[in-house]
Design brief:
- The structure is a single chain.
- The protein is mostly helical.
- It has a single domain (about 15-280), classed as Orthogonal Bundle (Fic-like fold).
- Helices cover about 65% and strands about 0% of the residues.
- α1 packs parallel to α12 (about 250-280) and α2 (about 35-60) packs antiparallel against α4.
- The protein is globular.
- It comes from Streptomyces xiamenensis.
- This is Oxidoreductase.
Length: about 280
């Protein structure tokens, strides 16, 4: 996606083969979850558990694949690379819910804030302080494991700035495309651009969460797509992302379908939580 794309470049994506069915399937799954009797009384508890599972999933995709109970049990996430990744995922996931108002006006400001939260507690030798909370400059590289290694070119600083500006304009203007399509594009664009020197995956997945929260599709944050992406596995995630980065109609449709599947798997997690709460097991 580039700055000189049409005013609403997302609507054609919503019409790609398979995408309307994906959108409808996700809508049905989310509506079914919201209609669960437990959601009428204990939605806050379900949302809290969904956020925890989402953060765990996002961290797993960034190389820290811890058991859910270990994430739940721990209080100190400052010792070791994996623990710091878990802590960063928890912080950015928690921030997503409180970012909606600012996101609607200045999405890039929220992205900077998310990166600041993710990277600010790095140990000495981690992300240099001057790179935290701002997009990469010319000559700066990305210091984190890359998805689809070798398949996705790292944009230079000039292209990065132009595409971030295009994404910002699109989000501020709004799109008639379904929420899933917008969320998938925001997620895929940020993963492809890798705008920061570190923690791009965590930021991209938190941005997807913000879009789903703010769009009305999942206003309570109970469909943790991050958990779904983790369940499908890093290899499938990387393969789908390569499809997005290719820019082809088929690749874009496959990425949107992958994101839709992740939301549905997140819904399944929360339905299980609802059932456990109903039985008194959680």
């Amino acid at each position: 996606m580039h700055a000189n794309t049409p005013a609403d470049p997302l609507t054609p994506l919503a019409e790609l083969p398979g995408v309307p069915d994906t959108v409808a399937s996700v809508r049905t799954a989310v509506d079914r979850l919201y209609g669960h009797r437990v959601m009428r009384r204990r939605a806050t508890e379900v949302a809290g558990e969904a956020a925890l599972r989402g953060a765990r999933g996002s961290a797993a995709l960034s190389g820290a694949d811890w058991a859910l109970e270990e994430v739940r049990r721990r209080t100190d996430f400052g010792d070791g690379d994996q623990a710091r990744t878990i802590g960063a995922a928890l912080r950015v996931t928690a921030e997503a819910g409180g970012s909606l108002q600012v996101w609607r006006a200045t999405p890039l400001r929220v992205l900077a804030r998310l990166h600041l939260l993710a990277a600010s507690r790095e140990v000495p030798g981690g992300a240099p302080e001057e790179t935290i909370g701002r997009p990469r400059l010319a000559g700066e590289t990305v210091d984190e494991p890359a998805l689809a290694e070798g398949q996705i070119r790292l944009p230079g600083a000039e292209e990065l700035a132009a595409r971030l500006d295009g994404l910002n304009q699109l989000l501020v203007t709004g799109s008639a495309a379904p929420a899933l399509v917008t969320a998938a594009v925001v997620h895929g664009e940020l993963l492809t651009l890798r705008p920061f020197t570190t923690h791009n995956g965590l930021v991209a997945r938190a941005a997807q969460r913000i879009v789903l929260l703010g769009s009305g599709l999942d206003p309570k944050g109970v469909a943790p797509a991050e958990a779904g992406h983790a369940e499908t596995g890093t290899e499938a995630y990387a393969q789908a992302l390569a499809g997005y980065a290719s820019g082809t109609a088929q690749g874009m449709a496959e990425w949107i379908a992958h994101c839709g599947r992740a939301v549905e798997l997140g819904v399944r997690e929360s339905v299980a939580v609802c059932e456990a709460l109903q039985r008194g097991a959680a």
